[in-house]
Amino acid sequence: MFHRMMQMGDVLPNRVTLVSVLPVISRLGALELGKWVHLYMEKNKIRIDDVLGSALVDMYAKCGSIEKAIQVFERLPQNNVITRNVVIGGLAMHGKANELFNYLSRMKKCGIFPSDVTYIAILSACSHAGLVDEGRSFFNDMVNRVGLEPKIEHYGCMVYLLGRAGYLEEAEKSLY
Fold it and tell me: What stretch of H or E contains 15?
């Protein structure tokens, strides 16, 4: 549908259309189409705000181009937890725990507090990197200092983290 719309040229996509099509491109893993859409935005001077920028960052990360995702992120007005969570989630997905910790630190310095979504990405990155102690520490920080109530996704990350590291009993106990 999107391609047909573009070929006909009668109706041009607007910001809302682009925000809607980028997640579809992400699910398809169609990096070249995503690059084309990004180029279209730039060529047609469509303002890339936080919402459109987050969709672009997410698309690049999910299509395997974390470097381009970071480039887009760095040009965004980085003033909210959503844009930060998108890049942190992308870094977690690519197993880049150290870079994730750097972005987390920058986030906190800007006065933006991690959300429950941020902690899911952090715990996932710790799992992929085998950082058991760090994962435990972030989970405890989330619960005891920040005061967030763990959700099933947080417990799932902890079970995965501990189970991968061979701490099966601790993983089981963390559920109760």
Answer: helix 15-28
CA distances from 121 to 4, 36, 44, 94, 96 (A): 36, 28, 34, 11, 11
Q: What angle do CA 83, 159, 55 make, to 5 degrees?
A: 20
How far does Cα 51 stand from its chain's mean position? Answer: 13
Q: What is the pLDDT of residues 96-148, one digit of tens each?
A: 999 999 999 999 998 999 999 999 999 999 999 999 999 999 999 999 999 99
Q: Where is 132: in which H helix or E strand? A: helix 132-140
Question: Does the pTM exceed 0.90?
Answer: no
Confirm if 122 and 112 have CB atoms less than 8 A apart. Answer: no
- Is the Cβ–Cβ distance between 31 and 65 less than 8 Å? yes
Phi, psi of 24 (to 5 degrees): -65, -45
Q: What is the DSSP string of 63-107?
A: TT-HHHHHHHHHTS---SHHHHHHHHHHHHHTT-HHHHHHHHHHH
pLDDT tens track for 139-173: 999 999 999 999 999 999 999 999 999 999 988 88
- Residue of 24, 93, 81 lying closest to 54 (CA atoms): 81
Cα 106 → chain centroid: 15
CA-atom Rg of the chain in angstroms? 18
